[in-house]
Design brief:
The protein is built from 20 helices and two strands. It is mainly α and 440 residues long. It has a two-stranded antiparallel sheet.
Length: 440
């Protein structure tokens, strides 16, 4: 006779409205902190490069490449975090996993604000920064799977797209908050103050944010007690998902997310350093352009999530990927044109951000619907982490290095367009009624 083993942590069959709202807020707040940090790292990439990677007066491009190499390395630890914390969330519970990752992210980010620079401790400085980036990568990898699982599992019927869209919306809010803090500091501080100590302030601000997030997550309703489930069966009594099936779903999820990841980082994170190093734009104007792109991103996310609850994830996400694939180069050419009016350039960046938002709004719900409850944290977390590791984390490094070697300023647009074309093909494999089916 088969010995029963513990089953998965399952969401309750019926979620009270108060618990649903609490899950939405608690799931979103940690994601806000994560992307606030990535936003400020992108905005201050040139400053960080000077403080940690080019102490002997190396070229700006050389420093950026090294700074973005550290940035990319953190992304390659995201899949590790997704596997470790995702497994923990699937077996032990969503709430304890979310508490652990927000503590790790907050601590690592605040420590960056306290790090001594190369001028103080020499070659140890960039290595310590890279170590903290790795810890951030581990926590960020675990954040997405747990947060999206909680938010979609607690969503009322017919609103998974809307609830999942809040995960992406807090990406926009975090990036906007990071850019806004950078704009304020760049406006009120001199260049020497900004390079001397001002860059530390936005990293230290994550400490009070993290304490708020921790309190909200500790107030999440506990996961439903686990019940015995035969090892050959899944959480609903059907066949347990085989590892090969989960792996195939992860690979397909990466393909569906590729355009979202690459275009998002190209237009929302890498743009400030690209505008400065390639087009000679001032720091303040580069940040303003990034704010406009992120405003477009934020404006389209929630409507896209709601629309996907009515029309389906496939329709809305394919529309966003096609929009970026067709318009990425023309929009970039407009930004590059020195004779183009400022409002036109701002509108181009806003439109690019809005196109990314059409993919990001339905994206979390789309991924949640791909995996059964037993492996949902792990599966959707790995798909998201792998896609971001390859196509987001490397975006700054690839774009900066290729532009420097070739002198071709169109690289960001070509990169975003090519990845979106691949995503269209992967997204077309979605069923049109997935949004109407119950989560497995």
């Amino acid at each position: 006779m088969t010995t029963p083993v513990p089953g998965p942590v399952r969401p309750p069959a019926a979620v009270r409205p108060d618990d649903a709202r609490r899950a939405l807020v608690a799931g979103s707040v940690g994601n806000f902190i994560e992307w606030y940090e990535f936003g400020i790292y992108g905005c201050f990439a040139t400053v960080i490069a000077a403080q940690f990677f080019t102490p002997d007066g190396g070229s700006e491009v050389e420093g950026l490449v090294r700074a973005y190499a550290s940035f990319a390395l953190a992304f390659f630890f995201r899949p590790v975090g997704a596997a470790v914390f995702g497994r923990f969330g699937d077996r032990v519970g969503r709430r304890p996993a979310l508490v652990l990752v927000v503590c790790l992210m907050t601590g690592a980010t605040a420590m960056i604000g306290l790090l001594p620079t190369y001028a103080s401790i020499g070659a140890a400085a960039p290595w310590l920064l890279t170590l903290l980036r790795i810890l951030q990568g581990l926590s960020a990898g675990g954040e997405f799977g747990g947060a999206v699982s909680v938010m979609t599992e607690c969503a009322p019927p017919g609103r998974r797209g809307r609830y999942g869209a809040w995960q992406s919306f807090t990406v926009a809010l975090g990036l906007l908050a990071g850019a806004a803090v950078a704009v304020v500091l760049a406006s009120v501080l001199s260049t020497s103050q900004l390079h001397g100590w001002g860059w530390r302030v936005p990293f230290l601000l994550t400490l009070p944010m993290g304490l708020v997030a921790l309190r909200l997550r500790l107030r999440l309703p506990p996961d439903e007690p686990r019940t015995p489930v035969p090892p050959v069966l899944g959480p609903a009594g059907g066949p347990r998902p085989r590892p090969g099936e989960t792996a195939r779903a992860v690979v397909l999820g990466v393909g569906r997310m590729m355009g979202w990841s690459a275009a998002g980082y190209t237009f929302l994170v890498v743009m400030p350093s690209y505008l400065q190093s390639t087009l000679g734009t001032t720091f303040q104007r580069a940040l303003l352009g990034t704010v406009l792109a992120n405003l477009g991103f934020a404006a389209s996310i929630l409507p896209a999530g709601r629309l996907s609850d009515r029309l389906g994830r496939r329709t809305v996400m394919v529309a966003g990927a096609l929009l970026i694939a067709v318009l990425a180069l023309p929009l970039l050419h407009l930004v590059q044109d020195p004779g183009a009016p400022g409002y036109a350039k701002g509108a181009a960046l806003f439109a690019a951000g809005a196109g990314v938002g059409l993919m990001a709004g339905p994206g979390p719900a789309m991924l949640a619907e791909m995996f059964p409850a037993r492996v949902r944290c792990t599966g959707l977390g790995l798909a998201y982490a792998l896609s971001n590791a390859v196509f987001s984390g490397c975006a700054g490094l690839i774009i900066t290095e290729v532009v420097a070697r070739t002198g071709n300023a169109d690289v960001p647009g070509r990169y975003a367009a090519a990845t979106c074309v691949v995503s269209v093909a992967a997204l077309l494999t979605l069923r049109g009624d997935d949004h109407e089916r119950a989560l497995r």
